[in-house]
Design a protein that fits this description.
Largest sheet: 5 strands, antiparallel
Number of domains: 1
Structural class: alpha+beta
Number of strands: 5
Strand order of the largest sheet: 3-1-2-5-4
Helix content: 25-40%
Strand content: 25-35%
Order of helices and strands: EEHEHEEHH
Length: 99
């Protein structure tokens, strides 16, 4: 699906993360933020790779919390080509305290 981007968004409070797809991940972040009591941060956007969403959801099934949200421990199960693109400082440090 060209034009659809894969994104990973993480909650500051719970550490849970969402894998989804959208034409505009920043707009999607804004939509999710409106309904979330916690601050959310966009960790990664992979242009034109939205087609990988379902495959990643299946891979992370045992770490699922609700819908497309997964426990933080599941990040390590992401395929290497995705995991290596993550900024681990954003994940491992309490970044929400410093912004």
């Amino acid at each position: 699906m060209t034009g659809t981007h894969l994104y990973i968004i993480q909650s500051d409070k719970t550490g849970t993360f969402k894998i989804g797809r959208a034409n505009s991940p920043i707009e999607r972040l804004d939509q999710l933020q409106t309904g979330s009591p916690y601050r959310l941060k966009l960790l990664l956007v992979l242009p034109d790779q939205g087609y990988k969403e379902k495959e990643l959801h299946k891979l992370l099934t045992k770490y699922g919390t609700q819908g497309e949200w997964f426990k933080e421990e599941g990040l390590s199960l992401l395929p290497d080509e995705i995991y290596e693109l993550l900024d681990l400082e954003l994940i491992n440090l309490p970044w929400w305290k410093y912004e």
